[in-house]
């Protein structure tokens, strides 16, 4: 997967920036749920924590 999809393990609760790990979150797969849509699944390269983030799907791109 492209490096631009990497993240950093910062939050315990979304937005708090309180996690001491600070490891790189590697994108490992994309998942689809009928309730939540597409989600990018990350795995922390330092502690192994898994997290999911909703993906914004833009189907109206114009050149």
How would you describe this protein?
The structure is a single chain. With 63 residues, this protein is mainly beta. 0% of the residues lie in helices and 40% in strands. The chain contains no helices and four strands. The protein has a four-stranded antiparallel sheet, with no helix packed on it. The two termini are 25 Å apart. The model has no long low-confidence stretch (mean pLDDT 88).
Task: Please render the helix and strand layout as text.
Layout: E1 7-8, E2 24-33, E3 37-44, E4 50-54
Antiparallel strand pairs: 1-2, 2-3, 3-4
> Which descriptor suits the 3D outline?
elongated
- β-strand percent reads 35-45%
| DSSP strand count | 4
* Order of helix and strand elements from N to C terminus: EEEE
Number of helices: 0
Distance between the termini: 25 Å
Main sheet: which strands, in order across?
Answer: 1-2-3-4
Classify the oligomer.
single chain
Mean pLDDT: 88
Radius of gyration: 13 Å
Helix content: under 10%
Structural class: mainly beta
Largest pleated sheet:
4 strands, antiparallel
Low-confidence stretches: none
Key features?
single chain, 63 residues, mainly beta, four-stranded antiparallel beta sheet, elongated
In short:
The protein has 63 residues and is mainly beta.
